[in-house]
Amino acid sequence: MRKGKIIVASMMLFCVVCFAAGALYFLLMKNNYAQPDDAQRIAAIIQVAGLSGSGATDARTLNELYHRRVIARQVTLASGAVLPSASPQEAPTSCVSLPASRDPAQIRQRCTTGDVYFIHDDDKIQQVILPIFGKGAKSMMYAFIALAPDGRTVKNLLYYQQNETPLLGARVEDPAWLRQWSGKKLLNDRDQPALKVVQSNANPDDVYTVDGISGATMTSVGVEKSVNYWMGERGYGPFLQRLAKEKPLILQ
Q: Is residue 251 a part of any domain in this protein?
């Protein structure tokens, strides 16, 4: 009996040590600020645009679809002008650190240019895809938001990289939660960011509100702050205003 108790106690101690080691690795070794690589971004753009209906996931097929249906450009954030370069990497850019008072999304720095992706078919713009990111409860959360050509109406939202708490904040990737974003408006009639993520039941008829994630208030607040930052004057706001008025001919 005594030997059996020792064996059981040893196994329990071993399990506790393994769990503690795993938790320590997760907290100390995992980079919660790691940026997505090109393959992740391409796959996410295809998915948020609804172009992966065939279910294809191999890199070659996704790349072919991306180059056939997606036009990548950069815009000057201050003016909203679309840069003419065919390759976003060719556009000059610089970044400056942001003070906390001007960094609600906690992105740390602001660059002079930003990426935009135009989904087209038969020489017509069908969607505009914007990358957004911001701090959640414990990690940087990366997403793509698909907008109608009016630059205001959400067609889809996809969070594709984050390290939020499992079963809580990590539900920003839950398709059921993301579906409510379709049809929501990001800007009001004065071209100001107007999105609200509410913790109580959102009015389904209110085009400016979405339900937050139950039990993940900090993550929900992070979503609201990051979306509104990137749709504002220091983000893609000037570009969205020009898009609504000028309809830039980026397909030429």
A: no
